[in-house]
# Entry
Amino acid sequence: MYDKVIWPDQYDPKLSALYALNDIDVKAPPEVVWKLLVDAENWSNYFPPEDQVKILTSESELVLGTRFSRVTVDFSMTLNVTEYEPITRLAWATTVDGDETGSSAYHGWVITPTDDGCHVLTEETQQGPFFIEELGRKHPGALYRYHQDWVERLARAAEAEVAKPAA
# Structure
């Protein structure tokens, strides 16, 4: 049994308008996947849609409390890392810049070692009128599809990293 995201009460999937769970088995060690995840400003190296990520605090990679921004599907967002257990768990809370409806999201990642690499699970919940309109009504299923593409590309990037010859 794989662990899942630990939800803050207000983001529990049972209370959320939108929810997606995506997971994949990766033939690479958890440390390799982790390094790719916390290197947010370089996500676009393996996942081109995430080409506008900027860490707003002094860190060079994501850690507990890191604030960062990104533009996802043409929407500017501000994010705060709220959970950080090295090589195991990473999560952030999200608000959409300029959204006055109070809409928010919570996105978590869980990496579990396996016999031949690791299992990567990501879950996200979204609440509020902005997300209901943009991803619920205008683009149903988009959250799941976006994250599925992300985990598949993350897996390929981690596996390619492991396959590189030693320097």
Observations:
- The mean pLDDT is 94.
- The two ends are 37 Å apart (CA to CA).
